[in-house]
Amino acid sequence: MTAVLIDRLRHVVGPSGVISDPDEMAGYLTDWRNAYAGTAAAVVRPGETEEVAAVVALCGEAGVAVVPQGGNTGLCGGAVPDSSGRQVVLSLSRMRRIRDLDVANQTITVEAGAVLQSVQEAAAAAGRLFPLSLGAEGSCTIGGNLATNAGGMGVLRYGTMRDLTLGLEVVLPDGRIWNGLRGLRKDNTGYDLKQLFIGAEGTLGVITAAVLKLFPAVRSRATAWVALPGPQAAVDLIGVLRELAGDRLTGFEIMSRQSVGFVLRHSSGARDPLGDRHSWYALVELGDTLPGAGLDGVIESALGEAFERDLVVDAVVASGSAQAAALWALREGISEAQNHEGPSLKHDVTVPVSRIPAFVERTDRALEEAVPGIRIVTYGHIGDGNLHYNLSKPVGSDDDEFRARAADLARVIYDSTGAFDGSISAEHGLGQSKRGVIADYKDRHELELMRGLKQLFDPRGLMNPGKVLPG
């Protein structure tokens, strides 16, 4: 049956569109961290939506599960097949076209395989901004961004992918194509179906294209690196900046000293912007569409007020784009730098902004009690309550012993997150890694509704099985 199916798939997408050799498939069968791996009957790379529909329909007829895959940069194993060898990986990597850019309507229509950076560049060439910005923007794709409802650095001003999306084109599990590519900001004609597919990680259908919002280009920026006495000062500083800068506050990142220390140790050319060590840091950015908007003066006024209120210990305002880029590199280099310290146990949580200080205090204490000497790498988009709570082993301890504690340590973080009315996944999704525990942290009625939607759209369970929903 598999051989017959592969022949039929080749007929649809062409011989070069199907990969069945194990060595050639290898890069599609594991995530970029090598944390998850599987096998597959084949990797299929359609070049247009009609081919995606035909592939999904053929797999449905054969009872073969489909695993949609974009740039494969996820952190939860959501785009990796299982170990059965019977699933088909559906790679959207050939579908990279920018179908339309409507300056007057402030929209761009792109295919799911378009790399995020290429969409940013297309918008910039038209004098516009597509504001989603991630560390993996040079390799992650719009389809993956939509599947996980990506957030990134600009959520504070522009929102997540849910906020940035006006319309979708989706191939449904039976092979039908839903064309919802409408660039409308007002469409009150019933259920907003696109929101069902955003964040669903390919379990309800395959997103093949999207209409995304564009914004006026940012022509003025001001960037500051700020030393803080603690997370409460960060929350209070956000309030000061919002009062003085309004929606010109486009970025606010928080980092523990442990996070920054790893970057300074392992990233070539990284330098500490301040002379002394501090417990916590914030990276603040203001942006304006007007050139010469005087943002340096605004950010200096805000920091001056913060100094008077003992919210800030030290600070430096970037003198130009090169220094601003160097400051952002300290923030963006954390995840990679941590990998040099042995196993990195990654967690992506969110709690109400006002509760972050108490959450950090409680969670750190519980982790240190569980593993004395554990190194806690805390950083994230504090303006929207999203913290990346990553863990490194104590110095000199055994890698395998630390990995063996992964589930227990995750429970410590998730239990604390639940106690503060938070979510155990802010922007990475559930994938394989969190589906086994989500039932303990999500209302059972919500899970019943989610299962009902899955049954409605995918009654045979062939769309990315083993992801998102608990068994």
What does the secondary structure layout of this molecule look like, with pairings?
Blueprint lengths: L1 H12 L4 E2 L2 H4 L16 E3 L4 H14 L3 E4 L18 E4 L6 E5 L4 E5 L4 H10 L2 E2 L12 H6 L7 H4 L2 H4 E7 L5 E4 L13 H4 L8 E8 L1 E2 L3 E9 L2 H15 L3 E8 H10 L13 E9 L6 H14 L5 E4 L3 H12 L1 H6 L4 E2 L2 E3 L5 H15 L4 E7 L4 E7 L6 H6 L1 H14 L24 H14 L14
Parallel strand pairs: 2-4, 3-4
Antiparallel strand pairs: 1-2, 5-6, 6-10, 7-11, 8-9, 8-10, 12-14, 12-15, 13-14, 13-18, 16-19, 17-19, 18-19
Main attributes of the structure:
single chain; 5-stranded antiparallel beta sheet; 19 strands; 17 helices; alpha+beta; 471 residues
User: How far is the N terminus from the C terminus?
Assistant: 27 Å
Number of helices: 17
* Largest sheet data: 8 strands, antiparallel
Q: Determine the fraction of residues in helical runs and give it as a percent range.
A: 25-40%
Strand composition percent: 15-25%
Can you give the mean pLDDT?
A: 95
| Overall strand count | 19
Net shape? globular
- Helix-strand category: alpha+beta
Low-pLDDT stretches are none
Radius of gyration: 23 Å
Descriptive report:
The protein has 471 residues and is α+β, with helices and mostly antiparallel strands. The chain contains 17 helices and 19 strands. The chain has helices spanning 2-13, 22-25, 49-62, 116-125, 142-147, 155-158, 161-164, 194-197, 231-245, 257-266, 295-308, 321-332, 334-339, 356-370, 399-404, 406-419, 444-457, and strands at residues 18-19, 42-44, 66-69, 88-91, 98-102, 107-111, 128-129, 165-171, 177-180, 206-213, 215-216, 220-228, 249-256, 280-288, 314-317, 344-345, 348-350, 375-381, 386-392. The two termini are 27 Å apart.
